[in-house]
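Note to self: user wants both folds in one dump. Writing first protein now.
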Amino acid sequence: MTLPVQGVSELVLEVADMDRTVRFWSETLGFPIIDQWGYADGQFTGSTSGDEVWATWIYVGGNTRLGLWLPREFSDEDEKRKAQPVNQWPNSALYDEGGDHVHFALFIDESDFDAAYEFLRQVDVPVTKREYDAEAPYRSLYFKDPDEHIVELYTRPMEKNYQLNTTG
């Protein structure tokens, strides 16, 4: 058996400057902001009423949203709890932050590849193209966001390209 996963629901990136990063993702690249949260007492508040924005959610297509989060500020006690296995965390706390980011890819249809490349060039985002020869050829565009995260636009449809045995 495997987990019945159908794709990526959300991906979160840590950002240094919320305003700059939100402008890049929403104004430069054109993705809509769907939610923003404040932060208090070591946890996100779920709203920004009077709070500084600490988390912004951007809709990037399909069933996927991208989270842009400022670095969390955990107390020494919270850091100790965060290091424990997740089943030992208190019910009221979620320490959902960790690890270094390498890169991530967003799927685009092959028919949109050239237009995506031209769009990135028109909005002055440095971008590079890669083409891969495989049984099913695919292409990628790579660029960086303001926080130096490597973003890939990828034409390889995983469902069609991987013949996985999901019954066992």
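First done. Writing the second protein, which came from a different request thread.
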Amino acid sequence: MTDTDMGVPRNPLPRFEEAEELGPQDAEFVRDLVAVLAKHGNLNRFGLCLLHDHFPLRTGEVLVETNDPEARTLHAHVEKADGTQHAKASQWRFVPHAGGEPGAEPAAGSCQEIMLCTTLDLCPGRGHERHHR
């Protein structure tokens, strides 16, 4: 997500409307990625998502996802990072310049969490008691 405060430098992501979706021109990339995932036994663990912004996040904010299994819906909203009950990351962004100069080779662990979620049903208005970790 794009950070609106200057505390954490990030390359901006395109707005959803401007983001280029996966297409035929990406066939070789997808084959290579599938081969790497298969080599490490991660074909049923990781996939792809289109990185984009719908709105900016400020420093100290995270995008969190909750679900309502009965209604079969997902909900995403912003929370303060230091106050969220959502402890499990579900989406990451590769940050090649983490701990180094822009354009440098990716360092081990150079991923940035971009969405957190939980297996608990924490959707507002559901009447469920909030669970604490």
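Dump finished. Worth passing along: The chain is about 10% helix and 25% strand.
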